[in-house]
Task: inverse folding
């Protein structure tokens, strides 16, 4: 059994997609379709996320060599997530990660009677 190796993002070849703040330590990803793509050789890959939000719950999804592997909601705080495990350690795996924010229900966006620009307006209209 080989020893687990730990790398920081600047130490591995990578592509960053979408809006960021141009820092790799930590890599900050904003909104939908921001992501990271790695080409790695190994039997398993773990990543560490730190997430925080007030309104929109961020989700993330992983693919390995073009196959969908997982999709889940990011927990507040820091967590380690297994992207894949038990794979051939000699083959290079393409592992893109992509952040996702769920699409909003836009059914009443064109109805001014449903708009509430402030919390006070919402309370006045709907309570």
Result:
């Amino acid at each position: 059994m080989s020893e687990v190796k730990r790398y920081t993002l600047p130490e591995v070849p990578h592509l960053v997609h979408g809006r960021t703040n141009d820092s790799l330590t930590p890599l900050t990803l904003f909104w939908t379709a921001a992501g990271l793509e790695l080409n790695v050789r190994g039997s398993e890959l773990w990543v560490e996320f730190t997430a925080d939000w007030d309104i929109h719950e961020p989700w993330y999804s992983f693919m390995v060599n073009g196959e969908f592997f997982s999709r889940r909601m990011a927990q507040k705080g820091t967590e380690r997530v297994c992207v894949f495990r038990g794979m051939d350690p000699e083959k290079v795996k393409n592992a893109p990660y992509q952040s996702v924010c769920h699409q909003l229900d836009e059914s009443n966006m064109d109805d001014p009677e449903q708009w509430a620009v402030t919390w006070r307006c919402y309370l006045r209209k709907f309570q």
